[in-house]
Amino acid sequence: MIKVLIIDDSAIVRQVLSRELARAEDIQVVGTAPDPYVGRDKIIQLRPDVVLLDMEMPRMDGLTFLKKLMKHFPLPVIIVSSLTPRGGELALEAIQAGAVEVMCKPGSSLSVNDMSEALVQKIRAAAKARVKKTGTEAEHTKPVQAPIRISQTKMTDTVIAIGASTGGTQAIQEVLTHMPGNAPGIVIVQHMPEQFTASLAERLNQICALEVREARNNDTVLPGLALIAPGNYHLMLRRSGARFYAQTKSGPLVCGHRPSVEVLFKSVAQAAGRNAVGVILTGMGRDGASGLLEMRNNQARTMAQDEQSSVVFGMPKEAIKLGAAEHIMPLTSVSAKIIELVNAKSH
Questions:
Q1: Is-catalytic flag, 191?
Q2: Annotated catalytic, 165?
């Protein structure tokens, strides 16, 4: 049984979340708190496995509380935030501070049913997450640009596709900050709500040598550009003549997600085939596993993050089980391997 504590100043939100989570047989809401001070006492008393935390509360905001918690009493935290640009920025700061997942409150763009199904999945993922103490390491230093260059030939032919879920925002940051500014075009699916993906792209754009932004429909996929699927839209790769372009579209959830890694990888397998490199990173579930296999079968080069460096070893594990990953490696080696594979293609 996964024990959950809800910290939110809205009595209605506490009530709705408690009611919805009561339907999941493997989840028990052991308590609720209207603010972080009461929350802190209940964490010590009830020892929850996962905490759901609101960002904007009186007396102490969620971010301040999260930083204290991760320093002294680290445990898996899911941020439940309002779906606004400000909410997106705060949620991203919270992930930097150690939260494992973000979720938007019901009513913003999610029905309560959609929200509760997604929340149950996120709680199951969070309960399995590896959580580290924060505070002492140099986690706030600006990443150093990788010295490795990519040879220029065939650059426009190659596309790199990356998929991630729980723990993925940090993993994607690790990969992109170590890619040179002339890397082939990159297309990315990270499971996140809308507004939150915009904040993620904006943040990465400030610290990477690449240009990073949310994908827009019919964007050309170019060297030096990384496109992130906008929350709530699938991202697909299309080919027209010698050019690749991005297509964003609505449509049903695939593997429980929109955007779905599966949708992206299958489109890359079809459009780019042997001219693609596919990377599956940390995350719960199996989204993208068979898509990566399809990429490999179409002669793309493929890799999966290893268990040791994954926050949740779900998606990479499923891909490895299917034989979809040609290489399995720690997160810190992924960028160098991508560059090596791209350079090998250009000879």
A1: yes
A2: yes
